[in-house]
Specification:
globular, about 50% strand, four-stranded antiparallel sheet
Length: about 140
């Protein structure tokens, strides 16, 4: 990961950013977040977890409130932060909402078969499934307060 502070004239390498970090998101009270996976496609072991930067991406450390999983991805929009935690041993996934008290489960023990999610609004998440040899399934989740 690289960052710039001078209008893109020069770039610096961010300190501590995980090798397999992906999908940077901004959480208003928690800074930048990025999820990682436990190993890459070559089999190299990596540091799985949710990573955080409180200085606009210059330095990175593990987010204090972690989730268990082999592959963690995060998404954020309009103040809603959602994470997906895949467990490759059980072939399942769970989704969580980040609250002031930490992560809250919003879906659990879902079959991990080509499932993704997108935040569509402050209180709206779409879960997209493509089971093997089946048509695409889109489910709508609405957050209640």
């Amino acid at each position: 990961m690289w960052y710039t502070e001078d209008g893109w004239a020069s770039w610096e390498v961010a300190s501590g950013f995980p090798k397999d970090g992906e999908r940077l998101v901004y959480a208003p009270t928690d800074g930048l977040l990025a999820g990682t996976r436990a190993w890459d496609l070559t089999g190299e072991t990596l540091a799985s977890g949710i990573w955080q930067s409180l200085d606009e991406g210059r330095t990175w450390q593990l987010f204090p409130c972690q989730l268990d999983g082999h592959w963690l991805s995060v998404d954020a929009r309009n103040g809603l932060v959602v994470a997906r935690a895949d467990d490759w041993d059980s072939h399942s996934a769970a989704w969580y909402e980040l609250t002031e008290a930490g992560w809250r489960v919003i879906r659990d023990n879902e079959p991990d078969v080509n499932v993704s999610f997108r935040i569509a609004g402050r209180d709206l998440v779409y879960f997209i499934h493509r089971p093997i040899d089946s048509p695409l399934i889109i489910q709508r989740g609405v957050r209640t307060r």
